[in-house]
DNA sequence: GTCAATGACATTTTT
DNA sequence: TGTCATTGAC
């Protein structure tokens, strides 16, 4: 694909910090705009659409930013320009990013552009911004500002308990199911009471769920806790219930910018709507004329990169932005500054197979670059070995390890990769996965801290009640809970008064001792303590020493417990580092920060290691060399996605996101057999592989070319490798299998099947769902809908005119 | 109340 | 493969 010649070439090194950018100091004497003709450092080096996106002033702006089109640059320059031109104070800016890391980077870049006067801006994730608001306002609606944030594991633990209590498992409810359903409802702003009102009580299953949901909500409230989804939805409820509170924020934020808008869910969308509404004071005084008074809104996104539908992201938020905000300006960024043309062409070819999308073509001025490399291993280990070998080669060629990344669909795929990487001495780092904070011993230590900060949190307290072992078993725990309930007192108070329960002297002492320890720690951590609160590290030290937690671990015979003790020490180091980075940071601040860290936030650019992560985590990142592993059916697209509406299309976007992370080199690898739960099963090449034009890929071992001789014995292959030369002396580049036959057979444009006649009983083939039979046809003319039962994908409704279907038989 | 042994079962993606 | 829940012996 050649770039249109009339486009203006700009500096391709978008992501590098421009050397020519000079910090601009706000000069009160200067006019609102820089002098005519003088080069404006905020516009310099931007292409025309980028410039338009920075300069547009109006109520609503949608920036459709293709992958690698420099959207972060546009956003930062836009913010800087608003501040520099004195159109906004920094404190009037609210910018929402997807991760904390992206927020930190944006803040850094804006303040660099402005010469360090960016104090007071809110640049954060949705969740962080909401926590900030909720902590300030907590007291006005029945919470304290020390509320706990429950992560998904905490939510699941609570749900598990409730399922047991209500015996909901007899109705077939499982923890993940209930958790997902509650999460979904919260993202749609349906709270427990609303659900209860419309629940179908003649259906016992639904009645039980409704009760589960209500008890879950009640338990959170009683524990003075919010789960992840609450952070957003409760902020919306807060704004709706207390307009005067909402007005404070509406008055404050005059410019709201939202990144990754395609991945916002309904609750987040509603939050933005609430915030961009004009404050009431304006309405009363008649200041509000159409579009006046509400904050200006800028959203950036790319519907082709929407990959979070499973967590409630609604692609319609971006698709229907212009309808939502009439008069909105739309700017398209299509020039890519990141990848080579070969990589982009592959990406374009793949994504063009998604129907019902706006056609959009990324192009670059960089040139073709190296071809994409494909490899089919005999097993997952074989595949991993290839990746490790190529990484070593790339490193020899001068690409730094931290400029390389390995992506996979599921976290479980890391195992084989890690094994081989360790053996091959490839320095690597896994982002996400089993995170540090998910380890049991860390959760224990955190539960101590949480119990100190939030005495109402029964879940945290239950976790530490008998950790380390103090002889407080389930029976005692139930007694304690009943006592607290009867006397209408907190758990902590109940523990202090444990002697009244008439338990054994040993148990009673254990309980009272723990209560004393928590009280002492709470006093130390108290923000209002005379002389200032103790540091988090001091509080943690007190807790783990006096409770005997580490001592017990060290004394254990289990060799793993030694490592656990070290992890707790590591957490102590984290608290010390926190104190250095956040002077005056309280215990609650620390707990908040820990709750909201995302996988990518751990990415350290200077680490000198290869990064391994899921395709989801990879969004928003870029690397010189990218390996996408496990490009197989049932993995990409994942087996579980087949039944979901829009599943295969979302999986394709995920693959697209992966491809577009690569700057120079892209490797697509798969295996013929893959181990899972100890069993090995046969894997098939992903359908998406066939969507990449054959001439873009050099197959070291193509899916068709690899014979089955290797079977499942990667060791034999290892042994057969002398030095660094590849094992197959035969033709290195086998002809790509059925490529020409398949590539771009389905054109990417919005299809038009014209007046394809379908009647019940017809058999059709759908590019995503396979073959199926038409049950009935409804609607008229261009809106005729076919109801189809697919063999593997089940029942679907399809708009006949544009669906990627054809009649068979 | 604790511990060790056994067997069932699971792996999609995440703030 | 590895985690977990249940079981039964102390």
Automatic annotation (TrEMBL):
GO molecular function: 3'-5' DNA helicase activity; ATP binding; ATP hydrolysis activity; DNA binding
Documented EC number(s): 5.6.2.4
Coiled coil: none
Gene Ontology BP terms: recombinational repair
A single GO cellular-component term on record: cytosol
Family: Belongs to the helicase family. UvrD subfamily.
Name of the protein this chain belongs to: DNA 3'-5' helicase
Lineage: Bacteria, Bacillati, Actinomycetota, Actinomycetes, Micrococcales
């Amino acid at each position: 694909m050649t770039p249109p010649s009339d486009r203006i070439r700009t500096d391709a090194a978008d992501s590098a910090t421009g050397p020519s950018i000079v910090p601009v100091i706000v000069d009160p004497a200067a006019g609102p705009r820089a002098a005519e003709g003088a080069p404006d450092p905020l516009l310099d080096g931007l292409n025309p659409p980028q410039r338009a996106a920075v300069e547009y002033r109006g109520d609503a702006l949608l920036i459709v930013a293709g992958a690698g089109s420099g959207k972060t640059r546009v956003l930062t320059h836009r913010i800087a320009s608003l501040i520099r031109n004195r159109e906004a104070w920094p404190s009037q800016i609210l910018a929402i990013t997807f991760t904390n890391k992206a927020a930190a980077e944006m803040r850094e870049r804006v303040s660099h552009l402005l010469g360090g006067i960016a104090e007071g801006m809110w640049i954060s994730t949705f969740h962080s911004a909401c926590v900030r608001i909720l902590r300030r306002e907590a007291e006005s609606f029945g919470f304290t500002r020390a509320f706990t944030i429950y992560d998904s594991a905490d939510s699941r633990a609570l749900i598990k308990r409730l399922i047991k209590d209500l015996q909901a498992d007899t109705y077939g409810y499982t923890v993940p199911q209930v958790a997902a359903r509650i999460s979904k409802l919260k993202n749609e702003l349906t709270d427990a009471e609303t659900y209860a009102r419309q629940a179908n009580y003649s259906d016992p299953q639904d009645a039980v769920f409704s009760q589960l949901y209500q008890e879950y909500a009640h338990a959170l409230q009683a524990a003075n806790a919010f789960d992840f989804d609450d952070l957003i939805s409760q902020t919306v409820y807060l704004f709706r219930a207390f307009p005067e509170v909402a007005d404070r924020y509406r008055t404050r934020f005059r410019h709201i910018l939202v990144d990754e808008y395609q991945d916002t869910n309904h609750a987040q969308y509603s939050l933005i709507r609430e915030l961009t509404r004009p404050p009431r004071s304006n309405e009363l005084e008649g200041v509000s004329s159409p579009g006046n008074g509400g904050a200006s809104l800028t959203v950036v996104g790319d519907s082709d990169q929407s990959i979070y539908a499973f967590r409630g992201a609604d692609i319609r938020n971006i698709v229907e932005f212009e309808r939502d905000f009439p008069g909105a300006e739309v700017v398209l960024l299509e020039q890519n500054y990141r990848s080579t043309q070969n990589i982009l062409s592959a990406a374009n070819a793949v994504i063009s197979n998604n129907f019902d999308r706006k056609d959009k073509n990324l192009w670059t001025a960089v040139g073709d670059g190296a071809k994409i490399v494909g490899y089919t291993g005999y097993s997952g280990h074989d595949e991993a070995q290839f990746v490790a070998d190529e990484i070593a080669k790339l490193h020899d060629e001068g690409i730094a390890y931290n400029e390389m990344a390995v992506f996979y669909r599921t976290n479980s795929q890391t195992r084989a990769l890690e094994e081989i990487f360790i053996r091959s001495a490839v320095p690597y780092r896994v982002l996400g996965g089993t995170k540090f904070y998910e380890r049991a011993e860390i959760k224990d230590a955190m539960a101590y801290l949480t119990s100190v900060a939030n005495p109402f949190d029964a879940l945290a307290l239950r976790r530490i009640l008998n950790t380390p072992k103090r002889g407080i078993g389930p029976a005692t725990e139930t007694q304690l809970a009943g006592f607290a309930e009867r006397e209408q007192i907190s758990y902590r108070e109940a523990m202090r008064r444990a002697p009244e329960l008439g338990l054994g002297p040993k148990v009673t002492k254990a309980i009272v001792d723990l209560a004393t320890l928590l009280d002492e720690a709470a006093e130390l951590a108290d923000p209002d303590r005379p002389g200032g609160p103790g540091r988090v590290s001091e509080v943690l030290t007190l807790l783990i020493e006096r409770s005997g937690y580490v001592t017990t671990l060290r004394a254990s015979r289990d060799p793993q417990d030694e490592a656990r003790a070290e992890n707790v020490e590591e957490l102590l180091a984290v608290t010390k580092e926190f104190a250095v980075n956040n002077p005056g940071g309280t215990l609650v601040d620390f707990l908040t920060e820990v709750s909201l860290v995302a996988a990518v936030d751990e990415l350290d650019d200077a680490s000198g290691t290869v990064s391994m992560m899921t395709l989801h985590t990879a969004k928003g990142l870029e690397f010189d060399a990218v390996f996408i592993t496990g490009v197989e059916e049932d993995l990409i697209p994942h087996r579980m996605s087949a039944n979901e509406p829009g599943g295969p299309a979302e999986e394709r976007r995920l693959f697209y996101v992966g491809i577009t992370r690569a700057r120079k080199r892209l490797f697509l690898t798969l295996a013929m057999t893959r181990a899972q739960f100890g069993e090995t099963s046969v894997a098939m090449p992903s359908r998406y592989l066939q969507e990449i034009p054959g001439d873009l890929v050099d197959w070291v071992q193509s899916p068709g070319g690899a014979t089955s001789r290797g079977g499942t014995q990667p060791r034999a292959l290892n042994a057969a490798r002398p030095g660094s030369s590849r094992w197959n002396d035969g033709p290195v580049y086998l002809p790509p299998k059925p490529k020409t036959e398949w590539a771009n057979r389905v054109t990417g444009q919005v299809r038009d099947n014209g007046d394809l006649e379908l009647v019940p009983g017809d058999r059709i083939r759908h590019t995503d769902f396979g073959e199926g039979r038409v049950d009935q046809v409804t609607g008229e003319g261009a809106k005729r809908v076919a109801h189809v039962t697919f063999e593997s994908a089940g029942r679907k409704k399809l708009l006949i005119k544009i669906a990627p279907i054809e009649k068979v038989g």
